[in-house]
Amino acid sequence: MNPSFLAPKKYKPATEIVHMDCVNSGGESVSDPYNSSSVPIYQTATFKQTSSAGGGQYDYTRSGNPTRSALELHIAKIMHAERAYSVTSGMSALDVILRLVSSGEEIVAGNDLYGGTNRLLTYLSNFSNIKTHNVDTTDVAAVEAKLDPVKTKAVLLETPTNPKIKIADIKAIAEICSVKCPNALIIVDNTMMSPYLQKTLDLGAHIEYHSGTKYLSGHHDLMAGVIGVKTKELGDKIYHVINATGCGLSPFDSWLLLRGVKTLSVRMDKQQANAIQVANFLVENGFEVHYPGLKTHPQYDIHKKLASGPGAVLSFETGDIGLSERIVESTKLWAISVSFGCVNSLISMPCRMSHASIPESVRAERNLKEDLIRLCVGIEDPEDLIQDLADALTFAGFEVKTKSE
Ligand SMILES: Cc1ncc(COP(=O)(O)O)c(C=O)c1O
Ligand SMILES: N[C@@H](CCSC[C@H](N)C(=O)O)C(=O)O
């Protein structure tokens, strides 16, 4: 037989996302005695052992569970990670990762980032003597200026950022960091792109994490976080923290997330196609739109090098807080809701919702505008979405220009 026929085959991203191997490079695998087509939910806290010395592959669900393992093996494959882990939320994922940073060490992070991330970094600064430098991560020189060969333990990047959709050149920052701070970890929050559109571990990151609550699951019916790592050694450290603190994802949520992940490519393709049309509609109406699918985006070329698409989250300013409020409150299809990545379209005002935990003065310092509206585009018919937005704009007192086809 031709030996190449036996070699592990790499498929296109959409195929990899739906096809499960359940095995990793270390030979770890999960199998089901009945060959079930859908991974079963092992809803059990404990596993019987074969002897007083143990002997089973699993003993206790906090330490490991077959449903969770199946999810983690699959996530590792689609992230191009050596190992992957799943925990109870995106914040829990970041908490686990940041336990690799010790008192006295420093983090370099963005000045536009998710409000909850900012809250956790502030907590570490206040209670654990871990200082964060918040810089504009679109500016590689600004990141470099804050790197300290002794103190810097982590560079934490969101790209695109939440909510201003700014792009950080992961590759360029990782290269500079590997020279100036070879022991520092490049950590990327890849929630907005998902592993379907951007594979940060291939771009120089050591650790990639996600709020699995968003695109990976896709239906806003669970909370989860996932972590992918570049090396087994890093994986062992991450696993140790998860087992020690007990934040591993439950069997049911692991199953739900695994089910959601399988449709990631079809959801993202549709949401992204809709988002491009929504972005164009807003541009035609004179708004300043933050979206890396627009050629006018300041980091359009960099994003194109990092990711295979612009995603489906965008934001825009109206220049008037009252007008923004009226628009948000007048939509019918766009639900006023935090979060993104759901199949339904959502609208929000970040300064009052997802980023309200960042003090107003800090938001102002970071040029996060109070009138900013964030849109998370779903899978509805784009004509309905645009019409609903146009109606809301009109109702709010804005003169909508005719949509050019
Ligand atoms: C970019 C980003 N990262 C992380 C998180 C945290 O995820 P979770 O809500 O699942 O804890 C969120 C939102 O909550 C987010 O928007
Ligand atoms: N009350 C929550 C708000 C969650 S925001 C969720 C999501 N990341 C988003 O950007 O919309 C909190 O304060 O954490």
Let me know the CATH homologous superfamily of the largest domain.
Type I PLP-dependent aspartate aminotransferase-like (Major domain)
> Any idea what the shape is?
globular
Task: Report on the biggest sheet.
Answer: 7 strands, mixed
Unreliable spans are none
Helix/strand structural class = alpha/beta
Q: Per CATH, which architecture of the largest domain?
A: 3-Layer(aba) Sandwich
Number of domains: 2
Order of the strands making up the biggest sheet? 1-7-6-5-4-2-3
Rg is 22 Å
Written description of the protein model:
The chain has 405 residues and is α/β, with parallel strands linked by helices. The chain folds into 2 domains: 11-31 and 60-261, Aspartate Aminotransferase, domain 2; 264-395, Aspartate Aminotransferase, domain 1. It has helices spanning 13-18, 66-79, 90-98, 115-127, 140-146, 170-180, 194-197, 232-245, 251-261, 264-284, 300-306, 321-330, 360-365, 382-395; strands at 83-87, 106-110, 131-135, 152-158, 185-189, 207-211, 225-229, 288-290, 313-317, 335-336, 346-348, 373-376. The strands form 2 sheets. It has a 7-stranded mixed sheet with strand order 1-7-6-5-4-2-3, with helices on both faces. Helix 2 (66-79) packs parallel to helix 9 (251-261) and helix 12 packs across helix 14. The protein is globular and about 75 Å long. The termini are far apart. Bound molecules: pyridoxal-5'-phosphate (PLP) and ligand LKTG3HHF. Pathway: Amino-acid biosynthesis; L-methionine biosynthesis via de novo pathway; L-homocysteine from L-cystathionine: step 1/1. InterPro entries: Cys/Met-Metab_PyrdxlP-dep_enz, Cys_b_lyase_euk, PyrdxlP-dep_Trfase, PyrdxlP-dep_Trfase_major, PyrdxlP-dep_Trfase_small.
